[in-house]
Amino acid sequence: MFGTVAKALWGHYRRHPMQIILVLLGLTLGVALLVGVMSINEHAQQSYKRGERMFSNPFPYVLHPINRGDRISEDFYISLRLQGFKQCVPVDSIEVMTKEGRDMRLTGLDYIAFLNLDSFQKNGPRLFDLNRGNDTIWVSHELANHFSWQQGEYIQLINGQRIGPLELMSEDSLTSGIRLFTDISVLRKLSPHSGFSQIYCGKLSEEERQQIKHQAQNGVTLSRTESAELAPLTRAFHLNLLAMGLLAFVVGLFIFYQAISLSLTQRQPLVGTLRQLGVYRSVLAWVIIVEMALLLIVGLGLGNVIGVFLASKLLPTVATTLNDLYGANISLAMHWQWEWGAYSLLLALSGIGLASFWPSLRLLRTEPSRLAKSVYVVGSLFTEFKWQALLAFVLLCVTLVINVLPESLEQGFLLVGLTLLCGGLSLPFFMGKSFQFFARFTRSAKLTWFFSDASASLSFRGIAAMAFMMAIAVNIGMETMIGSFRHATESWLEKRLVADVYVRSEKAKMRELNLWMKSQPEIYKSWVTWKNELEYGDGAIEVVSLGTSIEERESLVLKDRQADFWTVFHTEKSLLISESLAQRLDVNVGSNIELPPPFGPGWQVSGIYLDYGNPRGQVMVSVRSKLIPWISNGSGDFAILFKEGIEPDEVIARMQKTFDLRDNQIKHQHDILERAMVIFDRTFSVTNTLSTLTLIIALCGLFFATLATEFSRQRQYALLRFLGISGRNLAFLGGGQLAVIGLFSALFALPLGLLISELLLNVVIKYSFGWTMSLTYFLSSYAITLVATIITLLAAGAWPVWRLIKRSAVSSMREAL
């Protein structure tokens, strides 16, 4: 009996092939995006654990400048070698841009120094072959494939130079990731700078570590190379990706639920007939279970394949972002792992169980005599919408309770998820009630029919409209959050960067450079900012000096301050603290704070300032403070403000020539701002991609739901054609209903998306990075998004409408029968 019943029930998909496509679409794409995000996150975490940031196995310690971009002098490295530290080797790196405009990091190694180390010969990667020549560029197979590079090829740079030939390396070598490696002599040809960016050291005793720290030049520190520290730093980034992946999975499940509910609803008359013929409920239940299992296997398999493919396409962007933000070198060699399949199986199994449980239970428990009534089918679905609205109200109450609890990152994501779910569950109910209201009070018979039929069509389109609305809400929410974040960051940078040019010099030249600046008639004003690091807990706090000039005061972007903070700051034992550090230490303006020596107890917080983009905490102290001798042991930056109408290029050229300054030691204000915005846009490009893909999934779901609706109502449309209603009127009915449903969903999604963006900014961003910012609205962008989605939806639904116009009434009736 099982085979006969299965053949009867599964034959439904032969008559409605679009439904099987809709079922697999929701499940496959939902699983694909989830697996893609999980693959990227898990792969990155494994990279951190393996220490792929550099070669931490043979070199557990690294000497590096406190400030990114500073150099370690060659004299210091030579002194280390003369003192017997043969286990220390230099590494240099520069940014190069290819002819196509790609930013690449080229890392130079001292081949001879590396090969003379026993630890590197035993534990290090086997990549050096001096017979190939010092100009060889070592690159991973994965990076070469991504950029379509070939073995032995040369890379053309934007300045007309070229580097190469390329040597492709296996994925387990040093070159796994997005960096290029070569001999350090190649870097000297490409850039005139001297010194090194880092010095890596093998095993060091405690006495040797203290000796190196004591002799290290100002602004240089010794730390471990273990990149496990990257995991907490990048936690928020990966958490945001995972949230987007889960959201896409939920949207996919809504599409799956829509298709399964529609499929089982349309088979109710058949099930009623089978029940009346004596088929047991248990047999029907097993047929449905087997059907769900087959769908799960196919959807899970396709989803994993597409997910890994998607992850491989997004991984280079994610790796570049993590390298820009945190210096992480993520391997591009990614392979499917059974853990990813197991996670997706558990989630998909749970999702399918939740999505198919109620439609299946309703089908099996309903009396056979009632299953054949189409009025009951529609009425039962409206009853479900009422229960969904009631569940949305309960979840809203839960959301309000959670909102008053202590804030945290997890609470923020929970609030976003519950808010989105409340909106999605309540949409079909309010949409149906609105259509019924218009049908009841409109005077036009055609409009009454239009809205009544639109309300009835929600039995087929309601869940897809939920997914569509949720995707639009998330798209608007992410768009607002990213736009507000970008606007706040750009405004903050424009205020912070008050000088025209920033110069970073070696400590020995700073006194002479300062006197030279004071003597130049083109320079209106210059000042120096000192920086040093203070070890605190498991990390470090950056300590920065702040002068008394008007420009330095105006560069502060204060969140909160004392009334006379400027006087207190420069005359008393007071400091300014960054917003993220204040949140971490739980201090407010007026609080006393105790920091490790040389600070000690009794320091008062006179102000809290915004410091976007700084992953570490920071405090500012006055140039009149007694701590300045200690801070000046670190590094210093000059800020130069030129007189009105002066072109700085000539002055900078003279300064470079006089003090032998490299190009990377001089930064123009507009270059800093432009670079920061490029990194920002790259950071959120993956999130934007996932948000767009989620919206595409929802669009496809509503499109296929519309197709299923039109196919299921062919008999009704054919009868209406015989009653004298033209194909154009029916096309208006189908296309107009789709437009009204899309417009209602979009307008419903707009306030929901703005509420989500508010939660993302004030809770998620705050506890992810420690920053707060005001919400900025982008009305024109919202209009473009809403209009584009509705136009896309109408374009997607044009095919069934076109079929209605082109087919004759006789053909439609024959096909329906």
UniProtKB/TrEMBL annotation:
ABC3 transporter permease C-terminal domain location: 244-368, 689-808
The record's Pfam families line, in alphabetical order, gives: FtsX (PF02687)
User: What cellular-component terms does GO give this entry?
Assistant: plasma membrane
Positions of transmembrane segments: 20-40, 239-260, 280-302, 342-364, 385-405, 411-430, 450-474, 690-709, 730-757, 777-802
Tell me where on the tree of life, at the top rank, the source sits: Bacteria
Keywords on record: Cell membrane, Membrane, Transmembrane, Transmembrane helix
Subcellular location, record wording: Cell membrane
What is the membrane topology here? Multi-pass membrane protein
Chief location: membrane
Keyword Transcription in record: no
UniProt protein name:
ABC transporter permease
Organism name: Veronia nyctiphanis
Q: What is the lineage of its organism?
A: Bacteria, Pseudomonadati, Pseudomonadota, Gammaproteobacteria, Vibrionales
